[in-house]
Design goal:
Elements: H1 2-21, H2 23-42, H3 48-68, H4 70-98
Length: 107
């Protein structure tokens, strides 16, 4: 069904998105997604068509974001950063000072 395919497309969207950024790592993600898909078909949780549709939806959505929407999304993320940095910047600096082992620099 469409709901099953759409629910499963998330695994493939992540795998294809990683593949578009790094072929070597992405192949590992794709192998894992296909292994999970095969296991779910073998135990009867999905039909093969669900998996194929999910893979196509995942490929399409990852390709759209990577090739078409990447530039507008960068602008949106930059704008969000400019809006939230004045609010969250001081908080992050305080956390860095109080908990330097969590990734902050000891000052």
């Amino acid at each position: 069904s469409a709901i099953r395919a759409a629910a499963y497309s998330g695994w493939f969207a992540i795998a294809f998105a990683v593949f578009f950024v790094s072929r070597r790592v992405g192949i590992g993600f794709l192998v894992a997604a296909f292994a999970i898909a095969l296991a779910r078909v073998l135990i009867g949780l999905h039909y093969p068509g669900d998996i194929a549709a999910g893979a196509l939806i995942g490929l399409g959505s990852a390709a759209f974001v990577h090739f078409v929407a990447q530039r507008p999304l960068r602008s949106i993320v930059a704008l969000a950063g400019r809006l939230t940095d004045p609010l969250l910047g001081p908080l992050w600096r305080q956390l860095d000072l109080r908990f330097p082992r969590l990734g902050g620099r000891a000052r």
